[in-house]
């Protein structure tokens, strides 16, 4: 079940994608199927090993097109082991609500995203999340649990401060909010409560069958009680590069003399591509741990 809507966040074959705090890998798998060069990174070694196995199985089954690649690795979201401008696309889904230094994570994502690149950020939506916190302390007062609830304008403001330009938002998983309200009301660890079991069966049926009735219901519910808030943004091109063009035009310079000035930027991009992480499906490269707490699971069905 995807939170990022790839019809609003298009992906081209060959795009270099970082799924930061990938968890079980749902977005990484979709990007791999779409022909991207994917790096799935998380601090949870157990999950990364599972993601690597699935990447290998997908490669063996021919689920990814020629030219696609996939790497699963452990890493630290506050100290990403990649050069500047390494990726065309960064996805971080249901992660930032777990990390105390969310501004530091945004800064690292912006650093490794190339100018003109795109980023998708998803977090639990304020209203439905507030209900969960009110119904149950155990929902969020756990090691590695949610430490904040974002208001939409707060997240947008932090993204703009980090140098990103948001271009679209929406809400997702309207059918999942009532499930989590039931979980919080009956006990987040009490999966035997009949209302919880019944609703869980409904969600599984919806995910597997995608019937028209539930698709229409979720579309109607998303703006009202959608569990997740999704933001799409771009990293603008360097201001000095944009300013150099009119200056050159005023000076009457031709396109030929301007070429050498552009070479350093092109060289940097080329170096970043060469230094980008490995491309063998299922490979695992060790890195510093810390991308996403292992205990994070309170967004469960919405992940």
Automatic annotation (TrEMBL):
<keyword id="KW-0808">Transferase</keyword>
<dbReference type="InterPro" id="IPR013216">
    <property type="entry name" value="Methyltransf_11"/>
</dbReference>
<feature type="domain" description="Methyltransferase type 11">
    <location>
        <begin position="18"/>
        <end position="120"/>
    </location>
</feature>
<dbReference type="Pfam" id="PF08241">
    <property type="entry name" value="Methyltransf_11"/>
</dbReference>
<feature type="region of interest" description="Disordered">
    <location>
        <begin position="243"/>
        <end position="303"/>
    </location>
</feature>
<dbReference type="GO" id="GO:0032259">
    <property type="term" value="P:methylation"/>
</dbReference>
<keyword id="KW-0489">Methyltransferase</keyword>
<dbReference type="InterPro" id="IPR029063">
    <property type="entry name" value="SAM-dependent_MTases_sf"/>
</dbReference>
<protein>
    <submittedName>
        <fullName>Methyltransferase</fullName>
    </submittedName>
</protein>
<dbReference type="GO" id="GO:0008757">
    <property type="term" value="F:S-adenosylmethionine-dependent methyltransferase activity"/>
</dbReference>
